[in-house]
Write a structure and sequence with these properties.
The chain has about 170 residues and is of the alpha+beta class.
Length: about 170
């Protein structure tokens, strides 16, 4: 996707301000409302940002590379929730055959057992795992492979990603 100069400048704002909110970008971009910011993000920068668990706007690794003009040295820092960290840890590697959501859920159960349960004693559902995989896909560290059912695997080597601390 080719970005206009305005889009590149706004992408640089996201990289600089992250994690940020619609209101901060609204002020920076002199827009009328947070809805205008959201609409712009979705129409022009959808591939280059994501929202973390607190709904704060963060730039993808690709966005940071575009803004800086260079590939990052060392691990790419990516914010991940607890479940996303566990899914990332058990998802098949980039050279392995991709696996279904249910297969990744089974890997989670095998690897984490009772540690997989939340504070209410509930285990994540397939829907929770799918959401985590889709979020990791938007962050650029998991890829979706279409087979009989949608399947997933890491898009990068595990050691090329550092989990961001808040």
């Amino acid at each position: 996707m080719t970005l206009s100069e305005e889009a590149k400048e706004r992408l640089a704002d996201i990289v600089e301000l992250q994690p940020t909110k619609n209101s901060a970008l609204q002020d920076r971009w002199e827009m009328e409302s947070g809805s205008d910011v959201h609409q712009y993000l979705e129409s022009e920068l959808k591939e280059y940002y994501y929202r973390d668990d607190d709904s704060l706007i963060r730039a993808t690794a690709e966005a940071r590379a575009i803004v800086t003009g260079e590939e990052p040295e060392g691990p790419t820092e990516v914010y991940m929730s607890d479940l996303e960290q566990k899914v990332f840890a058990v998802a098949p590697g980039p050279d392995a055959e991709s696996e279904s959501v249910v297969s990744v859920l089974h890997r989670l159960r095998e690897e984490y057992g009772d540690d997989l349960r939340d504070e209410d004693g509930e285990e994540p559902s397939a829907k929770d795992v799918r959401r985590a995989l889709q979020t990791l896909k938007r962050k650029g560290v998991v890829e979706l492979v279409y087979r009989t059912v949608p399947t997933f695997r890491l898009a990068v080597e595990r050691d090329s990603v550092a989990i961001a601390e808040d």
